């Protein structure tokens, strides 16, 4: 077994070409990942981990943003939720934050990756774990923030209240859209999907009292047609989360934080106590 302090030559060749590695956690959760990039030939002093809690539906490939974080010195992971894309299981059988917490729990145990030069095993012992949670993945990041292993969460256009869907994307319509537009990309039955509208499943607003807003930085726009901003503003107020509320911008993408001005804000937040 090789630790995170040892890097193979071919990793850096693949990193330059933005070819991500793949691994599998808990036998079901497939994840893309990139190791941290060396700065001036030196290895990172500590294992800092960023996990992307992706939106849904959409393309699962996150190579560009993974490379961004790898260059910043992070181990960067983009898991596919159970029951979606290459991962096994049934989508929404379990609340998706469980998938994220399972990934965190597996990192120090070691994980295998396929390479053209054979199987390799890595072990990451995080000094800090940060979550970047967008849209549908917002609840995964926010709910996972209750776990002490998660230091900070940046949520972009997050769903916080499934019982208050937008006019543009009501839950019934969204279920049909995902089922017919993405086929086996998401494998679920109506009973799994129906849990969302109860407010008891995968719903941050239900659990706001147990959420420490000091761990949350939220980005949202008032003209977001997919996720209503008033519920997000209310959630931020109730929990004490920091909210960056824009007048325009629509349904913001997680890539917004890769812009220099926003990354300075995010980086400062991640480093804060």
Structure description:
Mean pLDDT is 90; it is low at 1-17. The chain has an 8-stranded mixed β-sheet with strand order 1-2-4-3-7-8-9-10, with helices on both faces. Strands 5-6 form a two-stranded antiparallel sheet. The longest helix is centred in the middle third of the chain and has 12 residues, at 171-182. Helix content is 27%, strand content 20%. With 273 residues, it is an alpha/beta fold. The protein has helices spanning 9-16, 63-71, 97-106, 138-144, 171-182, 190-194, 229-239, 260-271, and strands spanning 21-25, 29-34, 48-53, 74-79, 111-113, 120-122, 128-134, 150-156, 216-221, 242-246. It starts with 8 loop residues before the first helix and ends with a helix. It is built from 8 helices and 10 strands.
Features:
8-stranded mixed β-sheet; 8 helices; alpha/beta; 273 residues; globular
Stretches with pLDDT under 50, minimum 5 residues: 1-17
Distance between the termini: 33 Å
**In total, how many beta strands?**
10
Q: In the CATH hierarchy, what is the architecture at level 2?
A: 3-Layer(aba) Sandwich
CATH superfamily label: Alpha/Beta hydrolase fold, catalytic domain
Number of domains: 1
**CATH first level: which class?**
Alpha Beta
Q: Report the radius of gyration as a whole number of Å.
A: 18 Å
Helix proportion range:
25-40%
* Helical run tally: 8
What is the arithmetic mean of pLDDT? 90
CATH topology: Rossmann fold
- State which percent range the strand residues make up: 15-25%
Largest sheet: 8 strands, mixed
Q: Structural class of the secondary elements?
A: alpha/beta
> If strands are numbered along the chain, what order do they take across the biggest sheet?
1-2-4-3-7-8-9-10
- Taken from the alpha-carbon principal axes, the silhouette is globular
User: How are helices and strands ordered from N to C?
Assistant: HEEEHEHEEEHEHHEHEH
């Amino acid at each position: 077994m090789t630790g995170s302090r040892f890097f193979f030559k071919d990793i850096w060749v693949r990193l330059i070409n933005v070819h991500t590695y793949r691994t599998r956690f808990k036998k079901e959760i497939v994840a893309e990942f990139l190791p941290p990039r060396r700065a001036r030939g030196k290895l990172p002093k500590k294992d800092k981990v960023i996990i992307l809690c992706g939106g849904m539906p959409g393309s699962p490939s996150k190579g560009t943003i993974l490379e961004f974080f790898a260059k910043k010195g992070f181990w960067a992971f983009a898991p596919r939720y159970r029951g979606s894309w290459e991962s096994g299981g049934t989508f929404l059988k379990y609340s998706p934050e469980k998938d994220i917490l399972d990934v965190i729990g597996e990192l120090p145990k070691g994980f295998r990756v396929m390479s053209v030069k054979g199987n390799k095993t890595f072990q990451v012992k995080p000094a800090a774990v940060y979550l970047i949670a967008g849209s549908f993945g917002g609840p995964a990041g926010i709910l996972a923030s209750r776990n002490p292993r998660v230091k900070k969460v940046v949520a972009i256009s997050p769903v916080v209240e499934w019982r208050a869907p937008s006019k543009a994307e009501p839950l019934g319509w969204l279920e049909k859209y995902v089922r017919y537009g993405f086929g086996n990309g998401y494998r679920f039955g109506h009973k799994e999907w129906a849990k969302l509208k109860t407010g008891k499943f995968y719903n941050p607003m239900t659990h706001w009292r147990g959420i420490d807003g000091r761990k949350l930085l939220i980005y949202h726009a008032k003209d977001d047609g997919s996720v209503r901003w008033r519920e997000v503003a209310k959630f931020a107020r109730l929990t004490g989360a920091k909210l960056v509320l824009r007048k325009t911008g629509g349904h913001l993408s997680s890539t917004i934080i890769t812009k220099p001005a926003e990354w300075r804000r995010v980086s400062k937040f991640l480093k804060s106590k």
